[in-house]
Design brief:
By secondary structure, the protein is mainly beta. The chain has one helix at 9-22; strands at 23-28, 31-39, 49-53, 61-69, 77-81, 97-100, 102-105, 116-118. It has a five-stranded antiparallel β-sheet with strand order 6-5-4-3-7, with no helix packed on it. It has a three-stranded antiparallel β-sheet with strand order 1-2-8. The N and C termini lie far apart (49 Å).
């Protein structure tokens, strides 16, 4: 009996999402090098689907990214909105915004290389 395995686009996206957020690999002078990188939130466009939470044990909640708020003496916070801009209703993302401690790009979003920064 032969067993066939089907890979869906969602599976591929999830796999790429989890791998791409942590590391990418490069061959330098014939040596395999693993380089850590993370999202540069200043390059993520407004309105990007994200997931947020305040504590590591909390469940991730779906929101839309507005900006990262840099605090001089405290941790950075992510400003996100519950809804997208809507020209029909006149709703603006800024009218429904909140601040969160942890943020990650939603798994349905394909992350371009320009959004990354290398971490030493």
């Amino acid at each position: 009996m032969r067993k066939e395995i089907y890979i869906t686009k969602t599976h591929v996206r999830k796999t790429l999402f989890f791998k791409s957020n942590l590391f990418y690999n490069e061959v330098i002078n014939g040596c395999f090098v693993e380089i850590k990188r993370e999202i540069d939130w200043t390059k993520v466009p407004r309105g990007t689907k994200v997931q947020v939470r305040d504590e590591k044990e909390d469940e991730w909640l779906n929101r839309y990214f507005l900006k990262i708020v840099k605090e001089e003496y405290e941790e950075d916070y992510f400003e996100v909105a519950l809804c997208e801009d809507n020209n029909f209703t006149g709703c603006k993302m800024e009218d429904y915004c909140s601040y969160w401690k942890y943020c990650r790009v939603h798994e349905s979003v394909l992350i371009p290389d320009e959004w990354y920064k290398e971490v030493e």
